[in-house]
Specification:
heterodimer, A: about 190 residues, mainly alpha, globular, disordered C terminus, B: about 120 residues, about 70% helix
Amino acid sequence: MTNAMLAISDTQLATNVLFYTLAAGVALSALAVVLSRNIVRTALFLLFTLGGVAGLYFLLNAEFLAAVQLVVYAGGTLILIIFGVMLTSKAPGMKFEPKAIEVLVAAITGTIMLVALLAGIISTRGYAGHPAEIVRQPLDWGTSQYPVSDLGQALLGDYLLPFELASVLLLVVMIGAAFLAKGRRRRSGREDKV
Amino acid sequence: MTLTLATVCIPPVGLYHYLILAAFVFVCGLLTILLKRNAIGILMGVELILNAANINLAAFNRYAHGGLPGFPSLDGQVFALFVIVLAAAEAAIALAIFLNFYNNIASIDVERGKELRG
């Protein structure tokens, strides 16, 4: 009995340490995204946040989601954003200082939002339909099956229509982005001739 | 004994820990949108908000709505995957628009958008 309890608390301890480390990293780098004035540093802290969130997905047994987060988000979207930073600023260290009134409004909005969200989350603790014990332990998914196969079944089964719509959307986005970028170049070329 | 002491001192990680972290990340994204005047900074705030939503989706999938033993239902993870796809599409289009904006106005400051008509 004590041995089993000790083994459980051992894995719980590992989960706790991992979670709190990752959560502190995610929270601090998300805060740094807000506070940093240099857009390149902001992009770097966003990279840390995305990596930490990928670690949280690993903790939540969402391995495929974590891999997609690293490949698509940290590897693709963030590179695109850094490209945008480099293309749109002559001096990458360019700074925009917010006005004092903007900082005040943002602080009030953020405080209200955080307090409201936390109050909403905490108020569900004693909700009759969902006793707090349910959400303390992760669900038992069994060890025989590898969840990523179920993910594939879901994507090509129940979610086939959204899956195909997403592929159509990506095609439209590709054409749209190419069109917008091309129109920009043509206009600048015409200005050069004049 | 030390292990049990540590687990007593630190409560086991559950759904609420993830929800509180996601709420914090969401507020950080909101503040980023409100405070940045660089259009790309605002896009980064949107990415933070989408990540907060994704943490919630994955956490609910793991703790509250995930099917039965041996038959996991991964709706939350599928939703999170679609959110990642949409975020990538949104970033691509937004950056193309920002490039046009920068080309026309020679600045990435969103305050300069006041000069636009319509």
